[in-house]
Design a protein that fits this description.
three-stranded antiparallel beta sheet, alpha/beta, about 525 residues, about 15% strand, about 40% helix, disordered N terminus, 25 helices
Amino acid sequence: APVVEDELLSRIGPEIVVPRFASPGERAKNIGQLDEYLLPWLATRTRWEVYHELQRNRIPCSAHPDMAEVLASPQLAARGFWREVETPSGRRYRVPGAPARVRTNSRAGEPHAPGGPWREGALRVVDLSMGWAGPLAGHILASLGADVIKVESHTHFDWWRGSRPPGDDPSLALHERSHVFNAVNRGKRGITLNLATPAGNELAHRLIRDADVVIENFGAGIIEKLGLTYERLAAENPGLIMLRQPGFGSDGPEGGYVTFGNTIEGMSGLTSLIGYRGGEPVMLSNALGDPVSGLTGAISLLAALAARAKDGRGRVIEAAQLEGFIPLVSEALLDYQRTGALPRRNGNRLAGRVPSGAFPCADGEWVAIEVRSDAEWERLAGAIGEPWASDPALGSLAGRVAREDEIEQRLAAWTARQQREELADRLRAAGVVAAPVLTEGEILSLDPLVESGFWVGEERAHVGFHLYPGLPIRASAGRPEALGPAPTLGQHTAEVLAAMGVDADALARLEAEGVTGTIPA
């Protein structure tokens, strides 16, 4: 029901909407009936009309633009995102600009006094963010040695903890069992402050007053409503660096639109490239917009900290998630500008590499194979050892491209008689690019990851011991590693507030007044 416009609601009628579509559970149960109403509504609008209409009502969605539409984006144009470059031949191309920008500079600040709730000698980070993008940036800083204090509210906690369905058993503590939250918030301390209350807001200001960095990824206008604007914070802490991660940026005609990682992926044009030839666009499975934005945000913060080390000045860094993601489709953007033809979806096939893709094996598993040159094809043909593979016409890329369907069918029939691991090893030994397609469980025991210490074991309340991914970074001193599991809701509130001068009686009053808490309201 929340995704239906007034016009459609009036057509459906409240007697249908309320009982059948009022809750996520009811919508799931009656999804077929909901489609009966949504599809005719969609059929009267173009995808761009749907996109803007839903977004004006703060409903996340993507119009799935192609490369031409990405280059023509009014939002990216208004923000001056594109750079123009000229090749040695004189051709001019538009390419993605910087994935982050400085929006505000402050005057130089003074070093913070030691003490308070902060770990001695560590970078001080207040993480107000939720979900994946902002918390990942905080997690990376924690892994690099920062003291990160995550601020949530027991009335509005990080939505990546999950939700409590009506009538669930509170003893299950479902808000502590989210594997994604528990992975990306390791190494942090966690407190609860209801920022909508005067007392909670004042305590947040006091905490940020002595911080080096604050991270936020609230929806448009929320930070202003809370009175946590950079102008106000920097007046007391001019050396403060604030990372903001709006979906499309803080200005422009779509600046207030609502996004998640998958809508960022769609609006970048990537979804228009993914799928099988002649088929529908396909979204990837893991909302890549979020981790890309988290990594971009962390790099931007490190750059801002390096700049502050030279001039002492704080800054607002805006890392718009869409602008940080578009470099992932640079090749397709350039190809479209070079040829004038929109790239088509091509499944697992890669231009200039025949064959390439995943092929079935006898044990029900799959092997990935990619041939990058005529020499590699000759080695693969020798490993296959069947007459069809030795056909001289297949010795050139042009010959293989002309018979790509046939090659894939014959290769799949051959791999289907092989055992995955033995086949991958044999092909690699022959000089062919090949690898087993691993399951999640197999990745946990993959020798290179285990031997390099990539997996980090953590014991955490409510969920016990699990392995979590470390950072894909190695240094001379070893792999940077976040220390400690993700905090439970409000786990460190008493500890942090006590170090800020809040005594036990005051802490009890804060809890009684709903400013703090450890149980979801």
